[in-house]
Design brief:
CATH architecture: 3-Layer(aba) Sandwich
CATH topology: Pyruvate-ferredoxin Oxidoreductase, domain 3
Number of strands: 6
Strand order of the largest sheet: 2-3-1-4-5-6
Number of domains: 1
Shape: globular
Amino acid sequence: MTKNIMIVGVGGQGTLLTSRVLGNTILGEGYDVKVSEVHGMSQRGGSVVTYVKYGERVHSPIIGKGEADIVLAFELLEALRALPYVKKGGKIIVNTQEIDPMPVITGAAKYPEDIEKVLADNTSLIAVDALSKAKEAGNIKAVNVVLIGVMAKLTDISYEKWVEALKSTVPPKFLDVNLKAFDLGYNG
């Protein structure tokens, strides 16, 4: 059976590292893994979407509407945009941080209100203040690894396998902070 994970955020939030950690962890479990990154204006804080599919045999990395088992969202508005992709019984794990997109910054639009409520009313939601946990770990850029920790707890892959993947993926000078961030997410 194939599992589908959709990672959504804005440029600079670490979606690429997240997909690498997921891919390395899942490969270590012997699954076939396909990863596809769809970049918007990622260099300018635009939407970034990454698909990770794994199972016995995976033919395509693309995840269609209603197919995601898990959406890992680094920001609330990106979670809302990804809501149609969550399958019945799926989950959204979201960082409660709000990052204003350009139309909000310029005053052309308002940031939507009550996003957490909309998400909770339409899917199984796990909302996490990952920014605070990343600060506690020692680096606000570790939001992505906090969220990986939250998601890892929901899988049948052992804690040790996730840590091994972090050690093989994260540059050594950032490893301690990222291991702490992972633990803060994993242990709630």
